[in-house]
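Pyruvate, phosphate dikinase, Methyloceanibacter superfactus. C-alpha cells?
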Amino acid sequence: SKWVFTFGDGRADGSVEDKDLLGGKGAYLAEMSRIGLPVPPGFTISSEVCAVYYELGRKLPDELKPMVDAALDAVGQIAGARFGDVDDPLLVSVRSGSRASMPGMMDTVLNLGLNDQTVEGLARRTADRRFAYDTYRRFIQMYADVVLGIDHGLFEEILENYKNLKGFELDPELAADDWAEIVTRYKAVVERELERPFPQDLHEQLWGAIAAVFGSWQNARAIAYRRLHDIPDDWGTAVTIQTMVFGNRGNNSATGVVFTRNPSTGANELYGEFLLNAQGEDVVAGLRTPQPLTEADSGASGNGKQSFEALLPEAFAELKRSCAALEKRFRDIQDIEFTVQEGKLFMLQTRAGKRSTQAALKIAVDMADEGLISREEAVLSLNANQLDQLLHPTLDPKAEMTVLAKGLPASPGAASGELVFAADEAVHLKAQGHTVILARVETSPEDVQGMHAAVGILTTRGGMTEPRRRRRPRMGRPCVVGAAAVHIDPEREILEAAGMQLRKGDIVTIDGSTGKIMKGRVTMREPDLSPDFTTLMGWADGFRRLRIRANADTPDDARQARAFGAEGIGLCRTEHMFFEESRILAMREMILAENSEGRRKALAKLLSSQRQDFIELFEIMAGLPVTIRLLDPPLHEFLPHGEDTIAAVADAMGVSLTHLKRRIAVLSEFNPMLGQRGARLLVSYPEIVEMQARAIFEAAIETGKALHDRVTPEIMVPLVSVKAELDIVKERIAATARAVEKERETSVAFQVGTMVELPRACLMAGEIGRSAEFFSFGTNDLTQTTFGLSRDDAGRFLSEYADKGIIPHDPFVTLDEAVGELMQIAVERGRATHPDLKIGLCGEHGGDPDTVNFCEKIALTYVSCSPYRVPVARLAAAQATL
Ligand code: PEP
Ligand code: MG
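C-alpha cells:
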C-alpha cells in the first residue's frame, strides 16, 4: 500500500480528506499545496507505518526505505537542492502529526541534513558561515535530545559557560567561529555520553529522527494527553518531512503565528505576532518579545514596536491573501504558522483555531452572514456544552485573588457574598437584602431554602455530581463541593483554610467552574448575551423538533427558564415547597397525625400556600405547559434528625419527645430510595393527593381567568411501577377535580401522567400507557434502579471505576446505554397502545447534549433540564436534527 505522500509546487498526493492517514498537519499541508499556497515541499509518512513500527517491535519496515528515498529526490527537485549535497544541502524538519491535534506532546527534529561537510556547503551557498554553524549547533542539540536521549541541559550549560567566559550576553553577539567552537564542544558531549561520535551519516540521522517521532506516540506525555482527551491509542501518528525555510536570514526574514480571526472576541481581523530575524523555536523559548502583526494592533499596544505589516508589507499582503484563501477552503477560523525567508512568505502549518465560546458564536454567525458557511453549519459548529459558560458570571481573568482552597466544580458560575453557616441564617439575611454564600460541611434536605437564598454554595464533603444526584437539583447557582482543605466549624461560625480564618459575614468568592474558593470579593464579568447568541439560538430553534422545557420549582427558576427560552416546565418538584420554615411545621404535623382526619387538618394549613406557589408559576409561564409532580420523597425526610433538633422540634410542636422519636423510628427505612415514596406514598396517603390536586385546580382556575383559560396543568405521579397505582391516584385526582368544579361552578382542564423511572414501568409501558396522558422519564431514578446503584452512594467508587475503565462515564451525567434501551422499549410499548402519547425526559440528563441527541433519535416530545441548561438543550436538539 501507499505509505508516502508528497506535496509541494501546487500539487499533493493527499488532501484534507486524508487526515486519518496523514494526520492533521500532513493533510492540511497537502491541501494548502493543492490550492497553490506557498508551502515548502515535503512528504508525509502515513500513520499506517506507525502501526507497523510498533508491530515490528519499534522497527521501521524495510519497504519504507525506497519510498522515502524517492520522495526525498522528488522534494529536492522542487526545492532545487539535494539531501546530502556537499555544495547545496537540502535541510528538512521531521515532525509528528496525528488525526487529533496534540500540541507539543510528541517530538520534532529541525534542521536535519547537516554534518561536518554539508555545514560548509551551507555556509558557502548562503555566504553566511555564522548562520550555517548556528543552524548546525541547533540541530545537534535537538537531535541529541530527541533521538539520542541526551539531556538538553548539558548543551545549555556549555553555551552559558562559553558566553560567560567570553563576556557575551546574548546569542546574536556570537560570531561564526564561536558557533563552530560550540559545535565542537557539543559533539564532544555526545561522544562522551554515548561513547561514539555524533552520527555524520545523514541517512542514519533521518531514520533515527523518523523512528523517534513514531516512538514519541507512546511517550508518557502523549499517553496522558490522549487519556485526557479521549483519543484512541491505536490512531498512531504520521511523520511529515518538510524542506526547512529560515526566518533567521536577516532583517527581511521573520517567523510568526496568525489567527485568521481574533480567537477571543471573534472579530474578523488578523490576529497574531511575529519575530524578525528568528526561528520558530525562538518564539517558544520566549527570549524575545514578539511584535504585533498588524498596524492596528501596533497602535493599540502602544509599545512602539513596529508591525509586520509595516516592516514587510509585501509578505503581509501575501499572508492576508493566504488567510482568506484558507478560510474559504476550510470554512473555519485558522491558526497558522508562517515564516518569511528573505522576503518570501512560506506557510508551514494550518489548523482549525481554538476559540473562546464567545468568539465561536460570533464567528459562526459572521461566517454564515458572509456566505462562507450555511446556517446549519453555523449551528453545528458550536459545542453545546460550552454555551453554559456564557450564561453565568465569570471571574475577570485579570483580577487579583487570594485562593483559599480548591474543591470540586459542581455547578458553573462565580459569586461573591457574605459567609453564612446555616440555611435559616441565609434565608434571614437574604430577606434583609444581603448577598450570602452558604458554607456547609454537607447539605441536607432542610438546607434547600437556604440554598435558594444563597448566591453560591460551598461544602467540604461530597463529590462532583452529588448535588444533582441527591434530591437536590442544580439550581443554577455556583456550587463548589468536597473542598476537603477547608475546615468549617458551624458552631463557632468559622471557616479555616490556607492558614486563614474567616468569620460569619466575611466576604468570600467561589468559582463553580473551577472549584476555587477565594478570600474577599473578586472582580467579575457579568454574562453578556450578545445579539449573536440570540441570532444563533433563533436559527437553532428553527431546526429543532424536540421541545425544551425546564425543571423549575420556584418563581425565580421559572423566570430564569423563560428568559433562556424554555417552552414550559417539565418538572416542578413540589417537595421543595414544603421545606420552607413556615410550612415544614404543618408538614410535620401531617406526618405525626394518628389518622386521616388529623392529616387532613394539617394539610389544610398547607393548601393556601401551595395554591399560591402554583398561581405564581402559572402566571410566569403564561399558558405554557406546566408539569407538577405530586409529593415524591419518603416522609421521614421531613422529620428532624440529631438529638438537639428533635428535642427542639418536639418542643415547638407541643408533642412529647418520645412520641416524636417513636414516629421517626416507625417511618425510618433501610433503603429509603426503594421504600415508601412516590406513588406508594400517594396510594397510602390519599389526603396528600387531594390537597395537592386541589391547590393545582384552584390555582389554575384563578390564573386561568386572567389568562383566558389557557392553563392546563399536567399532574405527574412519581415512581409508578404498576398500572393500578397510577389508576388509584388518578381517580383521586379526578374526584378532587369534580369537587372543585362543583364548588366553583366551572370546569377544569388537566392531564394526568406518570414518571417512568423504574425498569418495571419501562417494560409495562404498554399497560401503563393506557392510563397515562403523558410519560416523563426520570432518568435519575431509572439509572439508579437499572444499575441497582444508589445515587447517594455511587460517588465513593465511581471515580475508581472510571480510572479502571469499568464504567468510563458517570451514568448519572451521561445516559447509560442500557437505560437508553429501556427508554426505547417504553417509547415503543407506550405508543403502541397510546399512539399520540406525549413523552418527555426530566432527569438531570436532560441538559446533556448526547442525551438530547438520543431523545431526538427515539422521538421523544420534549426534554426538560435545569434553567441554565435550556440554551444548551435547544442547541443540542437542533444539532440532533442536522
Ligand atoms: C428522576 O428520577 O430522574 C427525577 C427527575 O426525579 P428525582 O430526581 O426528583 O428523583
Ligand atoms: Mg425520580
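The longest strand covers residues 344-352.
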